[in-house]
Amino acid sequence: MVLETISKIIKTQLPAYLKKFPLPETIGGFARLTVLDWLRLLPLLGILALLGYLTIRPFLPKKKKQKDSLINLKIQKENPKVVNEIDIEDLKSTNVCYCRCWRSKTFPVCDKSHIKHNELTGDNVGPLILKKKII
């Protein structure tokens, strides 16, 4: 039933539909088409453009998707997140976190961008935390 319907459309209705199109016989004839003629040609031109694109698409160069990659390749891989604390007596504030994932918008200060990076890549990089030793 479905194939019969498709066959009828291709054999009878499609040729009748195409005969109604205002296709000029010369290239100069396209300049003489009216706006209404162009509007009637739009669906056909759209389908032809789509078919042309789908035909050449396999031959187009593929865009390389840049995926985040691991930053930390070997340091403390057994830990879910690498965080180092160093006591520094001369810091003005009590805690300072420095970025080690290179994705911070406030680099070199950590803005916790490593959390999203770790979720996307499975990496375990974390900030460098400098602590002022309180005596």
From TrEMBL:
Localisation per UniProt entry: Endoplasmic reticulum membrane; Mitochondrion outer membrane
Main location: endoplasmic reticulum
Segments forming domain Iron-binding zinc finger CDGSH type: 81-120
Record has Mitochondrion as a keyword: yes
Pfam families: MitoNEET_N, zf-CDGSH
An annotated GO cellular component: endoplasmic reticulum membrane
GO molecular function: 2 iron, 2 sulfur cluster binding; metal ion binding
Cofactor(s) this protein requires: [2Fe-2S] cluster
Function: Regulator of autophagy that contributes to antagonize BECN1-mediated cellular autophagy at the endoplasmic reticulum. Participates in the interaction of BCL2 with BECN1 and is required for BCL2-mediated depression of endoplasmic reticulum Ca(2+) stores during autophagy.
Family assignment from sequence similarity: Belongs to the CISD protein family. CISD2 subfamily.
Subunit details: Homodimer.
Protein name per UniProt: CDGSH iron-sulfur domain-containing protein 2
Source species of the chain: Oncorhynchus mykiss
Gene: LOC110497513
